[in-house]
Design a protein that fits this description.
Elements: E1 4-5, E2 11-12, H1 31-55, H2 58-86, H3 104-126, H4 135-139, H5 162-169, H6 171-189
Antiparallel strand pairs: 1-2
Helix pairs in contact: 3-6, 5-6
C-alpha cells in the first residue's frame, strides 16, 4: 500500500516494521537511538575517568591539581589586568600613606584629588555661597608665594577658651567646623600607613 503524507515530511506506512509510527528520512538516527548513544558515551567517559584516577599516582595527581590551580590564577590575573587597562584609575597623592609620611609631590596630589573635593562638598552643603570653593579659600591668595604654608591669613582664634569664643562670634559656623570640617580633615590626613598628624583649629586658623 502506498505511503500517506504526514507532517514535516515524515511518512506513515502500514507495514509491520514501522507499526504506523512516524519515521524520519533515511540515514538519520531516531531520537531514541541518539539518546542511547549519548548515554553509552557518558558511561564510557566515566569509566575512563575512574581508570585514569586509579592509574595516576598521588604525586602526579598533586602536580596536575597545582597546574590547574596556577592556570586558573593566571587566567584571573590576565582578566584583572585587562579590566584595569579598560578602566584606568590613578590614585593621586598616595592615599595609602598618611600625610606625615607623604612626599611634597604626594601631598600636592592628595590635596587636589581628595582634600579639596571633600572640603568643597562639605562647605557647599553648609552654605551655597561656597560654590566657588578653591585652594585660595583656605590657603589665601598668596598661597604660592608662601609655598602653601599654614595657618593662612584667615580669621584668627584665641588660644584660650577657643571654642567658646568662636561660638560667641558665630555659633552656626563653629558647630559646622567642629562637627563636620575638623573630624573629616583629621580623617583625611591620617588615613593610610604612617605617623599621625595632630589636627586642630590652629591647623588652618592663626592664633590671636
Amino acid at each position: 500500500m502506498a505511503a500517506r503524507p504526514c507532517a514535516e515530511g515524515l511518512t506513515r506506512t502500514p507495514d509491520s516494521t514501522s507499526m504506523g509510527r512516524p519515521i524520519g528520512p533515511p540515514g538519520i538516527p531516531s531520537m531514541k537511538s541518539r539518546y542511547f548513544a549519548q548515554l553509552s558515551l557518558l558511561h564510557l567517559s566515566r569509566s575512563l575517568s575512574l581508570e585514569l584516577s586509579l592509574a595516576l599516582s598521588p604525586a602526579l595527581w598533586l602536580s596536575l591539581s597545582v597546574a590547574l590551580l596556577l592556570g586558573s590564577l593566571s587566567s584571573c590575573a590576565d582578566r584583572s589586568a585587562s579590566e584595569r587597562a579598560a578602566n584606568p584609575q590613578i590614585n593621586l597623592g598616595a592615599p595609602d600613606v598618611s600625610w606625615a609620611a607623604k612626599t611634597r609631590e604626594q601631598r600636592m596630589g592628595f590635596m587636589a584629588a581628595a582634600v579639596h573635593p571633600r572640603m568643597k562638598m562639605l562647605f557647599v552643603k553648609y552654605d551655597k555661597t561656597y560654590a566657588d570653593f578653591s585652594c585660595q579659600t583656605c590657603h589665601g591668595e598668596d598661597m604660592e608665594l608662601k609655598d602653601y604654608k599654614m595657618p593662612a591669613d584667615i580669621y584668627a582664634l584665641p588660644t584660650e577658651n577657643t571654642i567658646e569664643e568662636a561660638r560667641d562670634y558665630d555659633a552656626d559656623a563653629t558647630e559646622f567646623m567642629t562637627s563636620k570640617v575638623l573630624p573629616e580633615f583629621k580623617k583625611l590626613l591620617n588615613q593610610g600607613h604612617g605617623p599621625e598628624t595632630d589636627v586642630s583649629c590652629f591647623s588652618c586658623h592663626p592664633k590671636e
